[in-house]
Design brief:
With 116 residues, the protein is mainly beta. The chain has a single domain (2-93), classed as Peptide deformylase (Peptide Deformylase, Alpha-Beta Complex). It has one helix and eight strands, in the order E-E-H-E-E-E-E-E-E. The strands form two sheets. It has a six-stranded mixed sheet, with no helix packed on it. It holds the Pfam family Pep_deformylase.
Length: 116
């Protein structure tokens, strides 16, 4: 089975949690759609075309750096019911309005301020 949808994602690396497994939950752009859960995901193909945007780290809120990401990935993973599938994922910028670009963290309001 192949799932071809554009998603945005957030995942926590399992080695940092001391777990010998991996999981990622991906939120589709449609707010009414179910999130996609990938268990033990493995990239099997990545496009040569990339996009480079500023990304941060949950451990260091004010630290950002430019990170290149492929525009398209094929990810083999297991579904909750145990079936092996391949998801085709496309970079989130497909959802941005034309002419709108992500901005560096220095341009965010409140950078460097304490979270209270």
């Amino acid at each position: 089975m192949s799932e071809n949808t554009t998603y945005s994602a957030w995942a926590w690396p399992p080695p940092q949690l001391g777990i010998d497994r991996a999981a990622a939950v991906i939120a589709p752009p449609d707010p009414d759609a179910e999130p996609l859960m990938l268990l033990n995901p493995r990239v099997i193909s990545a496009s040569a075309e990339t996009d480079e945007q500023y990304e941060g780290c949950p451990s260091f809120f004010d630290a950002r750096g430019l990170v290149p990401r492929p525009l398209k990935l094929e990810v083999a993973h297991t579904r909750l019911h145990g079936r092996q599938v391949v998801a085709v994922l496309q970079l989130y910028t497909d959802r941005m309005r034309e002419g709108v670009h992500p901005i560096p963290v220095e341009d965010y309001r409140g950078t460097g301020q304490a979270w209270t």
